[in-house]
Design goal:
Length: 426
């Protein structure tokens, strides 16, 4: 009964709104208006009806229509005034689509919108709308950096950098080298920047990430800057924007967390030379577990015990013990591939030794093992973009990533406010 009543109430409200708008002919502003494409004169050509999908259900609006002969195209001034110019979905529905598609797949979004809001939209419509919205959000993110007020910057801020591969359409990967057996690629790397604070502590005095303090910014883009390039890489610029937005550049104490990837430490060194560099312990442990798998084969008790011992040494800052254990393995093994893996791991530990001083970081009250960076990739990217059967284009992925990061960072409202302001201004 309640669902039926809601449907009726919405239909009544929808009819009222449509009647109200259709009774107002003031959108006919004389016989000519400047064409929205070429600026030349466009002639009034009567009132045209079109049905829009709105939060109140389908509404048929009759609007003044202007046609430009040279462009052979027309426009309705009222559509622009109501924010309807690009699509048949109303702004409120566009927003609902964005909310759903940021969180779940396009097909699931369609089902949710139908079940919760009584909307009939196709999965394709969800995809197109969410991508257009995501592109607008991505452009807005690049143009809009409001630095955090000084009073709101916590004493210690953390910046995490990470990368994760997402499955791509074959056409998007033509000619790109990859990790497949035949040298081809199946994925492209999304690079993610997250900022958070950890002023709170758990019962043992270990800093824990403050709820609601995490923000995300990510894209498939390059982090490499060549010496001959005039500007920094697209991702370095993204990190710079996010750091300014959160006040990371002004925090009293700063730490950059990442795994061992060189591009991470290049950006950290160049942009935040005073920040403490910390290898996320979660990543380091994963590395050691991977080596255990190489040494002892698929998961088994021996390998687990070996990895556990190394994890404990890592927590205790005993890198020498880890290296000694690896060196012993190296001497005992004859298989070149295994020896190669062990040597690589020793190299990784050596290159990052100053970033793995866990006891020293703990003594300074810094958080080193929240796994927040890795969780960031899983939460912000994996949970939405690495699901079974998904294959992305760079354009589509970057749009949905921008939409999702905006939503997860609590910036969706701000985006809509800015969009409405721009709309009023034009
Ligand atoms: Zn024209």
């Amino acid at each position: 009964m309640e669902v039926a009543c809601r449907r009726q109430a919405l239909a009544v409200a929808g009819r009222c709104l449509a009647d109200h708008l259709n009774a107002d002919p003031s959108d006919e502003a004389g016989p000519w208006l400047p064409c929205s494409r070429c600026g030349g004169p466009a002639r009034y050509a009567g009132r045209h009806a079109k049905t829009f999908t709105t939060a109140l259900g389908p509404l048929t609006l009759t609007r003044a229509y202007y046609h430009c002969a040279p462009c052979d195209a027309g426009f309705c001034p009222r559509d622009r005034a109501l924010g309807l110019e690009d699509a048949s979905l109303s702004p409120a529905v566009t927003r609902m689509v964005g909310t759903a598609a940021a969180l779940v797949s396009f097909i699931e979004s369609r089902e949710l919108l139908g079940a919760l809001a009584g909307l009939t939209v196709s999965a394709k419509q969800v995809e197109r709308t969410a991508e257009a919205l995501g592109q607008a959000i991505a452009a807005d993110e690049q143009q809009h950096v409001v630095p955090a007020p000084a009073a709101e910057i916590p004493p210690t801020l953390y910046l995490g950098l990470d990368g994760t591969g997402i499955p791509m359409r074959p056409a998007e990967l033509a000619g790109r080298p990859g990790k497949q057996a035949d040298g081809a690629a199946k994925t492209r790397e999304v690079k993610l920047c997250t900022v958070w604070s950890a002023e709170g502590q758990d019962a043992e005095g270990v800093p824990v990430r403050d709820a609601g303090s995490v923000s995300y910014s990510a894209a498939i883009e390059s982090a490499a800057t060549r010496d001959t390039d005039e500007s920094c890489s697209a991702f370095a610029q993204r990190v710079d924007r996010e750091a300014r937005r959160r006040g990371f550049d002004r925090a009293k104490r700063r730490a950059v967390l990442g795994d061992g990837a060189p591009w991470i430490w290049n950006i950290a060194g160049e942009y935040f030379p005073e920040a403490t560099q910390i290898v996320d312990r979660f990543h380091a442990k994963e590395h050691l577990s991977d080596v255990a798998k190489v040494l002892y084969g698929a998961p088994n008790d021996l390998g687990d015990a070996w990895a556990k011992a190394r994890h404990a040494e890592l927590d205790a800052g005993q890198l020498h013990q880890i290296v000694a254990a690896l060196a012993a393995q190296y001497r005992a093994r004859r298989d070149p591939a295994t020896r190669q893996e062990v040597r690589k791991c020793i190299g990784y530990l050596w290159a990052n030794r100053r970033r793995m001083r866990s006891p020293a970081f703990r003594a300074q009250g810094l958080c080193t093992s929240t796994a927040v960076v890795e969780a960031g990739c899983k939460v912000a990217i994996g949970a939405r973009l690495k699901r079974a059967g998904m294959h992305w284009s760079v354009r589509g992925a970057n749009a949905i990533i921008a939409l999702r990061c905006c939503k997860l960072s609590g910036r969706f409202e701000d985006f809509w406010e800015r969009r409405a302001e721009r709309h009023r201004a034009s």
